[in-house]
Specification:
mainly beta
Length: about 350
């Protein structure tokens, strides 16, 4: 689908979205789609299973390269060339170079930081830094940081489990969220060498099992979603010092929920007024409001059905108008229109994607 005009009006341009899925569970690998500018509907351009279990994706700043982790025992990352938006082509992402080992197991997340690609390796509880060459392909690991520690949950926290890695808004710091150690680790990545230097470890309440973190648009606060307790930890963020300070918590499920539930992903609205969290088991999207003055009080407003089963990922479209849930067990990506006043999403459509693990926008 390309540009179009509504009867003499201004031409509208469809965007792009990319879906990761578990090939070992019947997924198709990496799927490229268009995103209808008016309805939010996804239409497939092509798919590739050239990389096993591409559970999480990241896009280069210019949108020409897509990166994926291969979530296996022998973890790897790979680069893909993607069709530029202007070409209007209908092709699958194309593997660029061979997958590169991350020297860790079970990578679940990745991000571009300091001119490098960084992976969070859940199985080994480590973070790996990979060089990004001028042509967008990846080089061998340049830096590795091994986390240490445990948590009170003997089954899930017997050791470190790095689950997410991301740069802070200033680009100076790299944060890694570790479910196994109940903490967030802050480091510095050398843009020249890829060396990773430890800075601080911020302890969260034991047993919460932090999974993912998102920054407030103002850059002064961060919100950590906890998988094991389905709660949100509110933190102040000092970009000058690289200091994360927990200041409060809020539930992402209403009282009385008896089904075992595991929070997975969190996003914040562009205006910083609303937060949304995906919760597996309860199979819902939690809607929270943020105090606009302090940014430190989060309040659960309601939950809505995720449109499928086991929402592993949640993403906000670039315009901030729609939410997309990657529902792993029901095999779909379902999208929702957001009420701008209340932040409450309403189901608008669905795209079939077996074993869907994430969705990102180009």
């Amino acid at each position: 689908m390309g540009d179009r005009s509504d009867g003499g009006g201004e031409a509208r341009s469809d965007g792009r979205a990319y879906i990761g899925s578990f090939t070992s569970a019947g997924g198709r690998g990496v799927i490229a789609t268009t995103v209808d500018a008016d309805t939010g509907a996804l239409t497939e351009l092509g798919a590739t299973d050239a990389l096993a279990d591409p559970s999480y994706l990241a896009l280069s700043a210019d949108g020409s390269m897509l990166y994926a982790v291969s979530e296996g025992e022998e973890g790897a990352a790979a680069a893909f060339e993607v069709t530029p938006r202007a070409s209007g082509g209908t092709s699958a992402p194309r593997l660029a170079g061979e997958p590169v080992p991350v020297c860790g197991s079970g990578p679940t997340h990745l991000a571009l930081a300091a001119g490098h690609l960084v992976t969070a390796n859940y199985g080994s509880g480590s973070v790996t830094v990979l060089p990004v060459h001028a042509d967008g392909t990846l080089g061998a690991a340049a830096g590795i940081r091994q986390h240490e520690g445990t948590g009170p949950d003997a089954e899930r926290q017997e050791g470190p489990h790095a689950h997410q890695v991301l740069p802070d808004p200033s680009g100076k710091w790299l944060l890694a969220v570790d479910l196994g150690t109940d903490s967030v680790w802050t480091s510095v990545v050398d843009p020249g060498t890829g060396d990773i230097t430890p800075h601080t470890e911020t302890a969260l309440r034991p047993g919460t099992g932090p999974r993912h973190l998102v920054f407030h648009p103002a850059g002064t606060h961060a919100y950590v979603l906890n998988e094991l307790e389905a709660t949100l930890t509110v933190c102040r963020w000092d970009a000058e010092k690289g200091a994360l300070e927990p200041v409060g918590e809020a539930p992402v499920l209403p009282d009385g929920v008896e089904v075992a539930s595991y929070a997975s992903e969190i996003v914040v609205s562009h205006d910083g007024r609303h937060l949304w969290a995906a919760v597996r088991g309860h199979d819902s999207i939690a809607v929270l409001t943020l105090d606009e003055k302090t940014r430190e009080k989060a309040e659960l407003v309601t939950t809505v059905d995720c449109g499928g089963r086991w929402p592993r990922d949640l993403a906000l479209d670039p315009a901030g108008r729609r939410l997309y849930a990657a529902n792993e067990h029901s095999g779909d990506v379902t999208w929702f229109d957001i009420d701008p006043a209340t932040g409450i999403p309403s189901r608008a459509g669905s795209f079939e994607a077996p074993a869907a693990s994430c969705v990102i926008f180009g």
